[in-house]
Design brief:
It is built from three helices and 13 strands. The chain is of the alpha+beta class. The strands form four sheets. The chain has a six-stranded mixed β-sheet with strand order 1-6-5-12-8-10. It starts with a strand and ends in a 26-residue tail after the last helix. About 20% of the residues are buried.
């Protein structure tokens, strides 16, 4: 199983093993099946869904989780705000859980909504949690690389190991040339 994610800083995870080409704003698998991207705010995480896969299932498969309830479309706890894109509900959703007015206003039931195009959603009063150990490791490696890079000064600004840096004094009280 391929783990296909984009990290919050926009870089692709090194764990990605599958490839797809962009066609009309939606990724397409080798067999021609659309693979829409799902961007999640406020975290800025982007994952790629598979054909017929719900928003919740794509995020779970990619190692992310958030507050959910029944996972069957009966409780409404997994509602998110659809900011861009289109979704479909191949499984009937009760009007009592997702009324027509909420659908028009952009409310999406993530356990039943299947993206038809690239979508952007906003979680309600929640943040994504990393649930996959391998994703924890990838994020930790990325953060460690970033910290190491930030600590390193460019080679031309590093002091010579045997000479004091400009402004330091040598023995005898004279400043360095």
């Amino acid at each position: 199983m391929a783990l296909d994610i984009r990290l919050p800083d926009g870089t692709r995870s090194a764990l990605r093993r599958s490839t797809h080409a962009a066609v009309e704003g939606v990724g397409v698998a080798a067999d021609g099946v659309p693979m829409p991207d799902i961007e999640v705010h406020p975290d800025g995480v982007r994952v790629t869904s598979r054909a017929g896969e719900t928003v919740l299932a794509a995020l779970s498969r990619s190692g992310y989780g958030y507050r959910v309830g029944c996972r069957r479309g009966g409780c409404g706890i997994c509602k998110v705000d659809l900011r861009a894109g289109r979704v479909d509900y191949p499984v009937t959703v009760a009007q009592s859980v997702l009324p027509a007015g909420e659908r028009r206003d952009g409310t999406c039931l993530s356990c039943r909504a299947v993206p038809l195009s690239d979508i952007t959603i906003t979680l309600r009063d929640d943040r994504l949690r990393v649930t996959a150990g391998i994703l924890h490791a990838a994020l930790a490696r990325r953060d460690a690389r970033a910290a190491t890079t930030a600590r390193r000064a460019p080679a031309d600004t590093q002091p010579h190991p045997e000479r004091p840096t400009p402004g330091e004094e040598r023995r005898g009280g004279r400043p360095c040339p």
